[in-house]
Amino acid sequence: MSIKKSSKKVTPGSGTLYMVATPIGNLDDISPRAVETLRAVDLIAAEDTRHSQRLLNHLGVETRMQAYHEHNEEVQAERLIARLQQGESIALISDAGTPLVSDPGYRLLEQAHFQSIKVVPIPGACAAIAAMSVAGLPSDRFSFEGFPPAKQTARLSYLQALKDEPRTMVFYISCHRILETLQDMKVVFGEQRLATFAREVTKTYETIRKATLDELSAWVTDDEMQRKGEIVLVVAGSTRNKSDHPMRDEILAALVDELPVKQAAKITSRITGINKNELYEAALELKKKID
Fold first, then answer.
1. Do residues 194 and 211 lie in contact, with contact meaning Cβ atoms separated by under 8 Å?
2. Maximum CA extent, the chain
3. Hey, where are the domains in the chain?
4. Cα–Cα distance between 201 and 254 in angstroms, integer?
5. Using CB atoms within 10 A of its CB, is residue 134 exposed (0-12), middle (13-18) or buried (19+)?
6. Is 232 within 8 Å of 174 (Cβ atoms)?
7. CA 65 to CA 16: how far, in whole Å?
8. Contact yes or no for 168/143 (Cβ under 8 A)
9. Homologous superfamily of the 128-235 domain (CATH)
10. What is the pLDDT of residues 119-135, one digit of tens each?
């Protein structure tokens, strides 16, 4: 990969903590500013030094690394803060994507703010935002929900609390639990709730598919390949209070004129986000008028 340097030399500030986003798959998805920052800082705090070493080798970065992960976060945060207070510059990176988005780093960042240490974001790749950008679901307002609980009882309770959330929701889901999570979502959110399945984003076997939770569940059940890799699931928000869609009657009337009532209601539900059962009743009334 050839990386063109920016015209302005990156010179890390004394005692500055840099939050540096790294690629989530494709190694070209890193900015020249991020590369120069990683080269210029005194230390890189990495979630997994062995994993990150491959990236640094690829970029030609020789800066020393130190492990910073969930198991040593408390101890290492104090040590890193001490170094920052002595004037060193440090870059925090996760295994992939933007630090702190379901990754370690909160304790370090919290203490940096508390100690009035300068913090600087070096933006870049983020799986949640990448998936959201291609989901084909409302993006004017959305919520990042991270990883659902591993145990089913806790997961069902967690999903139940989100049942009526009107915003589009973004989830990170372990490939080992994707099928059971989709099945639980069907139970709680309803089989016809739309969602976009984004697997291995920016990688060789990238897969993007938008469908109902019922359709996605059947597809993942039948295709073992979809139960491998990194998965982001973008789920449409609740439409429980959205029966006032401006085009509801026009769309339903046009479809009822050409299709069976049940099918017309189902398609209108997909287009407008209105509850299918509510539309079925309205379609029956329209059918009576037409007949």
1. yes
2. 83
3. 16-125, 128-235, 248-290
4. 38
5. middle
6. no
7. 16
8. yes
9. Tetrapyrrole methylase, C-terminal domain (3.30.950.10)
10. 999 999 999 999 999 99
